[in-house]
């Protein structure tokens, strides 16, 4: 069994809980209030800015030029398949890039981004990549899992958003990332990869929930 298959199996219970979160359920049925989706898009834009920065950090610490190139290619695909799409959604929702960039990140958003950046800066390349994998992989699985709901979704904005995560560009990105984690997996013990993968999966759960609940800083 591939290392990524083992990671997927171990994080399965967490991902199952993500599938049942109110935000996810309501998004895919079309009943999610638009203000909650707008808040999510603004939060996620700030997350994606750091996601691109994080890939640059991982690439800068790669042990070979070949691995560095693969990571840069993944970052490019991220910019094409998801980041650019978010700019289109911001425009559709009536926000400028300047307004999105000025959005104050929620506590969970800050904590998640800091976890990814610190993992990439202080741990191995394999661990840095394993930490970012749950975000990409779980979004695809959510879209696939809720395909039947999406077909009946009356909200075109939500349908268009979800379509990104089953697109050819996104699938290419995901497979490249999984393959690279599997290639580098023998460089560190499995338990270290599992630790960061599980932590990132838990942050995914908390991230969806925090945007839905509107968690904010206490002062």
Task: Explain what this protein looks like in three dimensions.
With 219 residues, the chain is mainly alpha-helical. It has one domain (3-213): Heme Oxygenase, Chain A. 80% of the residues lie in helices and 0% in strands. The protein has 12 helices and no strands. The longest helix has 28 residues, at 65-92. The radius of gyration is 17 Å and the shape is globular. The mean pLDDT is 93.
Write a concise synopsis of the structure shown.
With 219 residues, this protein is mainly α. It has helices at 3-10, 12-19, 22-29, 34-60, 65-92, 97-101, 107-122, 125-145, 147-151, 156-163, 168-184, 190-213.
| Spatial extent as radius of gyration | 17 Å
CATH class: Mainly Alpha
* Main β-sheet description: none
Residue share in helices? over 70%
Low-confidence stretches: none
Q: Encode the helix/strand succession as letters.
A: HHHHHHHHHHHH
Strand percentage lies at under 5%
Tally of extended strands?
A: 0
List the helices and strands and how they pair.
Blueprint (H helix, E strand, L loop, with lengths): L2 H8 L1 H8 L2 H8 L4 H27 L4 H28 L4 H5 L5 H16 L2 H21 L1 H5 L4 H8 L4 H17 L5 H24 L6
Helix pairs in contact: 2-12, 4-5, 4-7, 4-8, 5-11, 7-8, 7-12, 8-11, 8-12
Primary descriptors:
0% strand, 219 residues, Heme Oxygenase, Chain A
